[in-house]
């Protein structure tokens, strides 16, 4: 049922009219009890849509990047124990409700699609470490003051986000924050960036302020009024 909307099923299950048994489908992983746990269908030239509400409850990892999958993604439909979802470089549309992610999530990647709407970053799962949302059509303002303490990587670049940003309360383990090519604006306090930060990109925004050097930090601020000292 999960792949009913896929028009190129032969890339996964053999003959679409008489599909193989699940254990013989391509690029699946099962646990010791023979329950399906991981799906690896990236770069499979898949077209059509997926019904995420029919994912088996035992699935923890789904990799489906670089296909031509269409339709929307209701994150509320994902299994409660899921930890990773990678859907980058597809043709997905519609809005996503990040607040409905299962509490077990560690990474979600939906970059390089056609997703839209606003982003709620205040109610992410506590365990989330990596969030990739770049190259979509997200709009509106964002909050960066209530990110999970475990967050390490947040990529928001090349969207249509706007407004002021507050980066004075980023997670203590934050390593990479990419905000470039958005419409953020205003004088910004960069004095509280965590020592763990390795990459910080605010280029091609309307932000202003001063960023002081940190030991591991690479800053990109071209096309802005931000100074690096």
Automatic annotation (TrEMBL):
Residue ranges the record marks as coiled coil: none
Protein name from the UniProt record: Leucine-rich repeat protein
Cross-referenced InterPro entries: LRR_dom_sf, PRK1-6/SRF4-like
Organism from which the protein derives: Paramoeba aestuarina
Top-rank taxon, per record: Eukaryota
